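Give me the fold.
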Amino acid sequence: MKWNLRMIAAQRDIWKSSELQRLLAEAGLVISAGKMSSLWAGQPVTVRLDDLDVICEVLQCDPSDLLVREPEKARARRPEPTGRGAQAPALRPAAGEGRRRGGSGRGGSSRGLVPPL
């Protein structure tokens, strides 16, 4: 997620963190200088939902304006398949599956078979 507070604040003609901090305090949200610095810098570790409500009220915006999805970063976090035949284990039949007892494994039941990719 990208934290877009400074851009939204700038669109409301708020250019300094101290100015936003004052407006938030007037709305009932007193934020320490350290927390305000984190919010203003662009990557807060946490934001309480109650605080987010007040921030959105002061800036007249929605949470979706402040929190911008970055799906490519989420995809980049997925582990890469490794090794020979690197398919997800759930996609391959377990040992002994795919063949019927007493038969050749052709025709009959398809229980335990996985369709080709």
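The chain has a mean pLDDT of 82.
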